[in-house]
Amino acid sequence: MIGVTDRHLAFVRDVVPRTPYGCEECLATGTPWLHLRLCLTCGHVGCCDSSPMKHARAHAFDIGHPVVRSFEPGENWRWCYVDQAYL
């Protein structure tokens, strides 16, 4: 039986960060961020849930790309927003 997280792993691709220097939306609006997350479906770089605008979460639910990985130096974890689980 395939679990929900297994289905969400099907969204994972080999991506290139679209904005390697920061959160795509925050760079456009001048909003600060704390930590960055990379969408593993399309390469969108968004800010984390501790950031004021939470763009990575918004992207996951608005666009339907559930899996991100940390885009912080030295971090290598992945997270599924839908399942609220590390992968």
List the helices and strands and how they pair.
Blueprint: H1 4-9, H2 24-29, E1 36-39, E2 45-47, H3 55-63, E3 67-70, E4 78-80, E5 85-86
Antiparallel strand pairs: 1-2, 1-3, 3-4, 4-5
* Largest sheet geometry: 5 strands, antiparallel
CATH architecture: 2-Layer Sandwich
- Give the count of structural domains: 1
Radius of gyration: 12 Å
Class from helix and strand fractions: alpha+beta
Strand content: 15-25%
Count of DSSP-assigned helices: 3
Number of strand elements: 5
Structure, explained:
It is a single chain. With 87 residues, the protein is of the alpha+beta class. The chain has a single domain, classed as Herpes Virus-1. It has three helices and five strands. It has a five-stranded antiparallel β-sheet. A hairpin with a 5-residue loop joins strand 1 (36-39) and strand 2 (45-47). It is globular. The model has no long low-confidence stretch (mean pLDDT 94).
Features:
single chain; alpha+beta; Herpes Virus-1; 3 helices; globular
Short description:
24% of the residues lie in helices and 18% in strands. It has 87 residues and is an alpha+beta fold.
